[in-house]
């Protein structure tokens, strides 16, 4: 009962503020920079939460999807960037249902072998590996393998437990709108689910505290963080836990390419999509943002959302914005059709080489991992390789005896993770300039982009209706969100 007067006050206040606004002005125009998972999801959630104004999306490339992209080599198409989803990536699950996208999941009948290469020999080799994603996060699916148990013992279960606890905390972001606040900062958002502390320490520290053996940390955990984030176990505990989160199987992807999630969301959100149009400047003038593109066009926007990492971009902001310095880890993805050379790995036969070669941290190692994407025949395969530096032809000629086709992609892939992690603000200028990718310092995945985007959409709607001065005088109100935000009524 004590809350009643203030609630009443809020209600009256809202009625006073919103009524004249919605009747006297046109709905706001929202401009989103970037058509990846983040930008597409902001558009989707703005529409879902009944935002009526025009939405523009600007994409500098001639395709949508950003770091969700495919590569075609020798007539076959593969994921070149973000490749796998976790079964508890619930936004992605819902998007794929809503968009009628075909899903391919883990096939337990197909198994692949894993080896951990230290530059001169395999320190560990499994025989079986239950996943057709001969790639990455499903490595924890090995927990049941006898060889793994022999080498790593109970530490395997401690690692699984550490991951499970983190995933369970993350699930709070799927709670109903009534029970979940709108977050103004990344710190607040992480604290609310109890994950903030994991960003203040390294994965190595967290795993030691969780009682894992040093051999597991040095080998298995390192192999996984190198594959997923191109970095060592000195990344933050949270990014580390996310990269380890492949246990229990059930990994999946969108048949034909994960980029179709972004394409579908954009298609269903009544968006004006501006392809091959790079935004070069954002200026706040006279109560709105003016966006200028390299094509020479100018757009007026009431709300502007940056849905791409700003770290390597040359967008000029006026007035200037200030965000913590952040470097991106570059991951060089190299696709090869041909055949690898067993002698490089000290073997006589191609069939002796594990189908997924992971690596430990060592300055001598020129690559992070190599996996077989497809076996066309015993002498003709397609491989995917990650490395921190570009692979030279000289190096590739040592690792591969036949190389009929090579495709190289240099990704500004994800942040270089530290501890303690520093976060850019979600609201860059205190007005209506938003930054979804501030959340990437927590972890970078398709799903975390969607989760951050959902919060940004709510933040936009809640702030545009509550703030009366200058710029928000343009805002239509959103009754559904408003009542959600004040469910304690
Ligand atoms: C090699 C690799 C493997 C990965 N593996 C996985 C995985 O298995 N699972 C997973 O969940 N995640 C994975 N990720 C991470 C995942 O790809 C990203 O976290 C996610 O896709 C980021 O989406 P985003 O929309 O935030 O950014 P992006 O996808 O980068 O989208 C930003 C978009 O903005 C555009 N843009 C930039 N500047 C401008 C401008 N000035 N004007 C107009 N447009 C602009 C860009 O062209 C781009 O299309 C991987 C990433 C890489 C690189
Ligand atoms: C996914 O869709 C189901 C069914 O519509 C819904 O109950 C659930 O809340 C949705 N999950 C998320 C994360 O939006
Ligand atoms: C690789 O492992 C072998 C055997 O454990 C060891 O002798 C060798 O020094 C290791 N090499 C590197 C680069 O760590
Ligand atoms: C995070 O760390 C602080 C300071 O050490 C501590 O007080 C708090 O209880 C921790 N929170 C969680 C959720 O572990
Ligand atoms: C967009 O959606 C419509 C139906 O809503 C569909 O017919 C069309 O194929 C979609 N286009 C793309 C590019 O997804
Ligand atoms: C590579 O190309 C050569 C010549 O076109 C062909 O004979 C050979 O079968 C190809 N090998 C592989 C592994 O694709």
UniProtKB/TrEMBL annotation:
Swiss-Prot/TrEMBL keywords: FAD, Flavoprotein, Glycoprotein, Lyase, Oxidoreductase, Signal
Example GO molecular function: prenylcysteine oxidase activity
Alphabetized InterPro entries for the sequence: FAD/NAD-bd_sf, Prenylcys_lyase, Prenylcysteine_Oxase1
GO biological process: prenylated protein catabolic process; prenylcysteine catabolic process
Domain named Prenylcysteine lyase: residues: 140-464
Superkingdom of the source species: Eukaryota
Cofactors (names): FAD
Keyword hit for DNA-binding: no
Pfam families: NAD_binding_8, Prenylcys_lyase
Signal peptide from the UniProt entry: 1-23
KW Signal (keyword) present: yes
Protein family: Belongs to the prenylcysteine oxidase family.
Name used for this protein in its record: Farnesylcysteine lyase
Gene behind this protein: FCLY
